[in-house]
Amino acid sequence: MTAVSIRNVSKVFNQGKPNQVDALSNVALEVKQGEFVSLIGPSGCGKSTLLRLVANLLEPTSGEVVVNGKSAAQARLDQDYGMAFQQAGLFDWRTVRKNIELPLELKGWDKSKRSARADEMLQLVQLPEFGDHYPWQLSGGMQQRIAIARALAAHPPLLLMDEPFGALDEMTREYMQGELLRICAATGTTVVFVTHSIPEAVYLSNRVVVMSPRPGRITKVVDVSLGGERSEDTRNRTAFFEAITAVREGLRGMHAAHVGLGNDDR
Amino acid sequence: MTAVSIRNVSKVFNQGKPNQVDALSNVALEVKQGEFVSLIGPSGCGKSTLLRLVANLLEPTSGEVVVNGKSAAQARLDQDYGMAFQQAGLFDWRTVRKNIELPLELKGWDKSKRSARADEMLQLVQLPEFGDHYPWQLSGGMQQRIAIARALAAHPPLLLMDEPFGALDEMTREYMQGELLRICAATGTTVVFVTHSIPEAVYLSNRVVVMSPRPGRITKVVDVSLGGERSEDTRNRTAFFEAITAVREGLRGMHAAHVGLGNDDR
Amino acid sequence: MNRITTNVGKVLPALVFGVAFLGFWEWAVKFFELKPYFLTAPSSIWEQFTGNFSLIRGAATVSGTNALVGLVAGTVLGVAMSFVLSRFGFLNQLITPLAIALNAIPIFVLVAVLNNMYSITSEIPRRIMVTLVVYFIVLVNVARGLTQVSPTHVELMRSYAASDVAILRKVRIPNAVPFLFTALKIAAPAAVITAFVSEYFGGSQNGLGSRISSNIANSKNAAAWAYVLAACLLGLLFYTVSVVMENLNRKGWVRQ
Amino acid sequence: GGSDEAADEVTEDTTESTEAPAAETCTTPTPVKLQLQWFIQAQFAGYFAAQDQGFYADQCLDVTIVEGGVDIVPQTELANGNVDFAISWVSKALASREAGANIVNIAQVFQRSGTLQVSFKDKNITKPEDFKGKKIGNWGFGNEFEIFAALTKAGLDPAKDVTLVQQQFDMVGLLSGDIDAAEAMTYNEYAQVLEAINPATGALYTADDFNVVSYEEAGVGMLQDAIWASGERLASDAAYADTAVKFVAASLQGWAYCRDNVEACRDIVLAKGSKLGASHQLWQMNEVNKLIWPAANGVGFIDQAAWDRTAQLSLETKNLEGGTVLTKAPDAEAYTNDIVTKALDILAGLGVDTSGSAYAPIEVTLNEGGN
Amino acid sequence: MTNVVRRAAQRTVMFVAALALVAVVWETYKAVGPEDGGTVLGVRILPRTSEYAMPHVWDMFSRFSRPEVRGSERTVLDAVTAGAWYSFRLSVAGFALGALVGVALAVLMARFKVVQRGVLPYLVVSQTVPLIALAPLVVSWGGRVEIGAFVWPRWLSASVLGAFLAFFPIAVGTLRGLAAAPAASVELMQSYAASWTKTLFKLRFPTAVPYMVPAFRLGASASVIGVVVAEISTGLKGGIGRLIIEYAREATGDPAKVYTAIFGAAALGLVMAGAVVAVDVIVMRNRPKEAVS
Ligand SMILES: Nc1ncnc2c1ncn2[C@@H]1O[C@H](COP(=O)(O)OP(=O)(O)OP(=O)(O)O)[C@@H](O)[C@H]1O
Ligand SMILES: Nc1ncnc2c1ncn2[C@@H]1O[C@H](COP(=O)(O)OP(=O)(O)OP(=O)(O)O)[C@@H](O)[C@H]1O
Ligand SMILES: [Mg+2]
Ligand SMILES: [Mg+2]
Q: What is the β-pairing status of strands A62-67 and A2-13?
């Protein structure tokens, strides 16, 4: 079954004005149920925009986005997804714990259930003792981990994550990657993931989508066949290195010519 | 000559309150003129705090910070440094160009000179056509590049950078690394640099300082002897890999025990 | 073309609402046969308004001038004071309670005191009064706008060793601008009402306030409301100007 | 000395009146609300005396006296049905009547106008003609008609020939020289001036320091405090008409009491919570008495000639808008002497002197600040 | 907690110092200023110093201890305190009513653009309708409006007029605050498919606080003014407004006395504003402080 289906979508900002930006042009992508897809590409190529379109936070200028067989708008209303933004975007006036509980409150969970889940999440992101701090008392990386905890708290069937691990140190990052994969495998969660790290994209994903900017387009899709379980070992397998090279080439080529190479291998 | 001298500095937040945090404890570090020093460590270990102490945006709870032979406060007043924050912190009501010109305005540069430098900086961060956009019209990575441009604009003798390349894609990141090294070499700029990427730290630095959290301390200082010039080649040299391993070990060991190993090898 | 239709769309609800309200009023007066001493019909107010237009314009000029002078003086003073206060904390603690206290004294009581200090025939007390009211509104809002700035921005400026004046100019003022316009929107009608409430209980009988009060006392309600109408128009004019200024300022950087 | 004798009379009055209710037994007194035009002061002493001395109770009335405020228009309160009776000046009330308020004058308590225009001697303002080019104070709120009438009569245009200045609650404008001539009631503001210290002498100002233009003497006096009732209810509600008679009777009885017991009435007013001082209230009581007594046709009786003069002045006097107070002559229903006549009959039955032909004012010495 | 107490104490001391300063300035000016004021180009700019214009500070304060009327037990201070307390209760009622209406209007206007466009101009207009034109109307509700067991008390008219002045700054300030939520946070709430109401309570109100606080402060002052004016204009007894005008009538003979009531009104306003500030401190205690400077 298809979790996300992006059909020939284009997005133009400030249409008709002098500062018009063609953020996305004719993007098509299908994400299967339970699949982990990463988006990678130079900054400004429209990754965040694409994620926003799937989340129905933006309307496409043309084309259509279908999520779980319904329109993106319906999927949003049904809260079919959880989202982690590029900026942590925590609420200053809520404690860390209350920030994590926010989506649960909105789902109408009762207090004890919320509190239990928040504890679980704080444990997951390794910040159990910071529940009663306020966001501005945390370091940048800690804030980002709280934002991830918030996105995961409700166990949504679809996760949209925009550079969630950007501000994390390598150790924490690897730990979080492992946890994310574990959770997704256990719950069958579909993930669309934006990252700048090629190894991260390859390690996590079933497919890596390479994008190019101005206008934002998909230039290459790399299938990663590393099998189900990942472990520390995975990072040393040939398939891993091959995929990395494939993605890197996709990015390089583009960087060299700046215009896509047209090697859209889907 | 010593550019930065951190003498037995400790920093406690919310002292005496239930949510007291020992952010830094007994940190000592000397940075020589023209040296490039990276700080690395798990999130929350006090890197940003240490940078803020050097920038005199925070006062140490105990200990002393000397910058260019004067007190940190005096150095700030003399504008001896430029700083790039973890959050881009651009001003919504200023165009990108005006954001870059801000420190120059404050130094009293005249309009044409400011404008010329802003153009130069926009070129440097590869966003020449976005000068008249407003920050919220840019992608996350673009915003961060503007923040870097702003920090570099006045060519300060000391640069304090807090994960400046965090939101950049690999290509742009490598390009920016190169540019940063080029500028620093040309102007003899001293840099204190916070990063989560071990290769980045090693590639850029003369020394990598490894920190551990709760309380934040320096656990290891790795000297990188890669000589003056760096190039693509550098990344393939043994010294490079050795340094990476040394840093990684410093971080791992700490991660394992979580309590510092005391291998402060200065 | 498009601009024109959207602008029409903006004022249309107000027009519809206004016309409906007036229609209802007129109808209610006719239907319930309300006597003029109780409530006059909009039509007779309008009759009085057009009939006495030159008198009304004269009175509106007097009160309007007082309001305008006070509005400008109060805004300037309020902005200046909030700068000073945001800069010197102890002055803030010294002056803010005084401003609040002064502001809690009803307008005409203060005007009475000022009338005795200056002269009952002078317009100065009324202008001072408007100035005080506007000043307070501007001060309270702008002071908040000057202090509620992003900590990152302040840190950035401090890293530039920016002087307090520079932080004020580059961070605090831009941040306070929306607060200033909020203040102006509140202050514009307040200036008008203060200008003519200051006329109620003393002073030259040449402005809207004294005309309203004496006409009401004489049961000439239609005439009184014709002056009230002038007051409303004056207030609306001031308000509209402040909204237009705000929109001009916001053009560009505000996210839609 | 005269007041002592008067006090004796009062005791007689009360003993007589206590016999009255025996005639018709009063089980539940009729509630009545009276709206004053201003704060509690001796200007309204008669009503407070009637309340205090039980004259209302004798008539089986339970009277609530509602104080005025600056924006309270008594005749409007009456027309709106908030109160049963109201005290108002005739010209103001007629203007309301023309605007549709169906109110009727049922007793003209003040027979004369008490309005003055007071100025310092050196301004040389002795008659309305002298107002030309001067800053003329007035209170606004409809209290300025006599000034306009005097100006009109003197051939002056209120909008052009004088500068009209609204006075505050005090007379400071006059004393500081901002106003050339200030409007003053004989019984109130004039006294305030005489209670103030003259900085030149260190003693109180005296009547010699001032020139006074009396509008009554200038021939433009308008009828002032009168009791107004609802025309509609008088016509349709016999009980209300009956209550009106009783109310007027008891009120006038109160006024007769105050004529004879000036100091007692001062104390009643003070006890009701007036903030103005004792000597001021005594002065006021005395001056008010002068406006009421002697009453040739009986107190409260509406004199056709005075009424017509007031109506005529209201028709002719131009206000600041250039309009006149009234646009057409008041209809015949605007006042009635029926009620006051019946009331006077009741009082005659009680032996109350309703004409005060022997009335003589007392001498009052004002103290600083009216204390 | 002790910190809060210390700050409050410090503020009080500062306020007393400020008052003392004003008194000194007042007396100094009275001593050196021109008796008849100073004129510049024929316009009197400097106030007069006569006893009527500027009574001595000690004269004003000495009035507090005098009996209100001769021979009465009650001092002026008692009267002013009682009046201020009475007006305070009316003001609180007016403020509460005004805040309720103001916030409700702001929410409606924030929710429906049409309402904002249709109603906001008339809210502005409403503020320019002088109380004098409304007071008699509102007062006439007293004793006449009966809803079930509820009979409209006379004092409520005064509170309603207070609310009439208070609601406007509150509505405008709150409206602006509700619109100030950062776009990123709005997006987050959208991604939760949070209803408008949920977004209102979880996001918009918290971000509106910095805008609402000054608005409420203005509203508190406005409510006091409205109540005091209403007392004067409707003849309602018992409050500070009534005292002001009664003492003002004595100003010809005793210019210092009216200041006692004026001070009472000022104190009333201070208490109201102080309460708002206290709430502000509590509500904002966990927000990021501006970088220490
Ligand atoms: N203003 C503050 N109030 C209270 N605690 C603070 C404050 N700022 C920082 N801290 C605490 O100090 C510690 C160090 O924070 P810091 O921001 O220096 O970490 P960091 O090393 O920069 O982490 P990251 O890599 O995640 O940015 C953290 O535990 C944080 O919670
Ligand atoms: N609200 C907006 N108005 C105008 N232009 C916008 C807006 N949002 C994004 N853009 C433009 O759309 C383009 C794509 O932006 P987007 O944020 O999707 O990039 P991205 O791939 O996420 O980049 P990064 O890796 O730096 O986050 C950029 O050129 C940006 O300037
Ligand atoms: Mg992005
Ligand atoms: Mg940090």
A: antiparallel
